[in-house]
Specification:
globular; single chain; 169 residues; alpha/beta; 36% helix
Length: 169
C-alpha cells in the first residue's frame, strides 16, 4: 500500500501516473475519487485507454468549506464510494486500486480512519492500493509500505492564478 500526502500539488497526478504506467503493461486500474464530481481531463483520457483505467467520482462536485460541516449527503456518497471501491478491489479485475482524496474525506469526517483501515485489511495480495490526500492519518501512514509527503515550495495559486484546463482540471 502506498500513501501520497502533504500540502503540495501532485498527489493525484502521481497516482494517475502510476495507473498510466500500469496501463502500458496491460494492467487495469480502478480510481475512486472522493469529494470530486466534476468532469476533468483525466476522465477523458481514461476513456481513450480501452478500459485499462476506470475512474468513478463519489462527490457532489461542490467545494466543501473546512470551516463548515458537510451535509449528510456527502458522507453517504463517500460511504457508497468506499463500497464501490471495495467491490472493485475484490473483483479480481484490477491490479491497482486508487482511493483519491480519501485522506481529505477522513479529515472532513465523511469517512473514519477505522473504515479505511478495514478496507486496507481486505486488500487481496496482488492488488496495489494507493491512498491520496492531504492530512493522512498517522494510522494510514503506519500501515503503508510507501509514503510520499509532497511539499509545496512555490505555487502560482498563491499569486491568484486559477485552475487551468489540462493542467489542474
Amino acid at each position: 500500500m502506498q500513501v501520497y500526502t502533504g500540502e503540495g500539488k501532485g498527489k493525484t497526478t502521481a497516482a494517475l501516473g502510476l495507473a498510466l504506467r500500469a496501463a502500458g503493461h496491460g494492467l487495469r486500474t480502478y480510481v475512486g475519487q472522493f469529494m470530486k464530481g466534476r468532469p476533468s481531463g483525466e476522465h477523458e483520457a481514461a476513456k481513450r485507454l480501452g478500459g485499462l483505467i476506470t475512474i468513478e467520482t463519489y462527490g457532489s462536485g461542490r467545494f466543501l468549506d473546512p470551516a463548515q460541516p458537510p451535509d449528510a449527503g456527502e458522507a453517504a456518497r463517500a460511504r457508497e464510494g468506499l463500497g464501490r471501491a471495495r467491490a472493485a478491489m475484490l473483483s479480481g479485475e484490477y491490479r491497482i486500486v486508487v482511493l483519491d482524496e480519501v485522506c481529505v474525506a477522513i479529515a472532513f469526517g465523511l469517512l473514519t480512519t477505522a473504515e479505511v483501515l478495514a478496507f486496507v485489511r481486505e486488500r487481496p495480495e496482488p492488488v496495489e492500493l494507493i491512498l491520496t490526500g492531504r492530512q493522512a492519518p498517522p494510522e494510514l501512514i503506519e500501515a503503508a509500505d510507501l509514503v510520499s509527503d509532497i511539499h509545496a515550495v512555490k505555487h502560482y495559486f498563491d499569486r491568484g492564478a486559477g485552475a487551468r484546463e489540462g493542467i489542474e482540471e
